[in-house]
Amino acid sequence: MPTTIKIGISSCLLGETVRYDGGHKHDRYITDVLGRFFSFVPVCPEVDCGMPVPREAMRLEGDPEAPRLVTSKSGADKTDQMLSFCHAKVVELEKEDLCGFIFKKNSPSSGLYRVKVYREGMPARSGSGLFAAAVVAHFPHLPVEEEGRLNDPELRENFIERVFAYRRWKDLLAEQPDPGRLVAFHTRHKLIVMAHSPALYRELGSLVAQAGSADLPQLLSRYEELFMKALELLATVKKQTNVLQHIMGYFKRELSGPEKEELAEVIGQYHAQLVPLIVPVTLLRHYVNKYDQQYLKEQLYLAPAPAELMLRNHV
Q1: Which of 152, 239, 247, 284 sits 20 to 30 Å CA-CA off 300?
Q2: E strand or H helix that includes residue 101
Q3: What is the C-alpha separation between 51 and 157, in angstroms, rounded?
Q4: pLDDT of res. 1
Q5: Is the pTM of this model over 0.85?
Q6: How far apart are CA 302 and CA 35, in angstroms?
Q7: How far apart are CA 105 and CA 129, in angstroms?
Q8: pLDDT for res 13
Q9: Confidence at residue 40, expressed as pLDDT on a 0 to 100 scale
Q10: Do the beta carbons of residue 291 and residue 254 sit within 8 Å?
């Protein structure tokens, strides 16, 4: 895996003074924590498309499915200028090999969700920023998130896990994979996928079973679609508990009576949301090493991202 993983980001979140009022929205978690593992490709659609700093604030107006970008006071329509930039920029970003994108919430150019769209002077939180929408349309499998939602530990964990998984998938594609490599990739990710979507876990398994006889490029494309779709679904406590119990089943013969009781108790405590997921996972990793469980040693579920990011530490 490359030493750095590239993700796109709204420039203001890195502290760049590009906002309409000449300010920024520096996010220390992004730069100080995620910045240790990711390299950033900053984009400010408004400045990059030729608008000055400072500038008149803008908003979205009209149809939420195809809104216009209009200055708030003078009513100048900047839609064509922005869309022309968006169409060119997404093609340019293809060269960056991005594995994720963090957008600025509420922005008429970069907000992902619930951006205000005005109709007859009344706002409804029903839109997406023009640039964010263009990125999502052009890179449908790219993990995306807003900086505000990263304050939610489950959403933050989900985004980070997807970024690392997408990097591993891209690395596989770069190796010109054969059916055997696809099977190996799928095997290492089985428990991760199961924790997010048992249904897509089964569908991906059926797809991989056809790898030796199907058109491989077409199969890889379909696998990527389903794989990233599965990981986008949140891994709930119920689904995580199912995976933990599944892993425990690999130690039926090795664990002593007291060890089985302790492990079952810890999994039960997690299920009751008394301890974070990292607690049963740490105990399972201990047994994986103690009893040299080779299959589980390869499972990325037990360590989907660097420990320093402190995923799975929330209740």
Answers
A1: 152
A2: strand 101-103
A3: 35
A4: 43
A5: yes
A6: 23
A7: 9
A8: 98
A9: 98
A10: yes
Task: Say how far apart CA 163 and CA 111 lie, in whole Å.
Answer: 19
Count of H helices and E strands in the chain? 12, 8
Residue 107 confidence (pLDDT): 97
**Whole-Å CA distances, 175 to 168, 179, 180, 185, 222:** 11, 12, 12, 12, 18
**What are the per-10-residue average pLDDT scores of the chain (315 residues)?**
80 97 97 97 98 97 94 96 98 98 98 94 90 98 98 97 98 93 97 98 96 92 98 98 97 94 98 98 97 96 95 93
What confidence score (pLDDT) does residue 283 get? 97
Residues forming a β-bridge with 39: 6
DSSP string, 30-96: IIIIGGGTEEEEEE-HHHHTT--SS---EEEES-TTS-EEEETTT--B-HHHHHHHHHHHHHHHGGG
User: Cα(160)–Cα(166) distance, rounded to whole angstroms?
Assistant: 10
Residues 157 and 143: their CA atoms lie apart, in Å, by: 12
Q: Could you tell me which residues come within 8 angstroms of residue 198 by beta carbon, excluding any fewer than 6 positions away?
A: 239, 242
Residue 68's DSSP bridge partners are 61
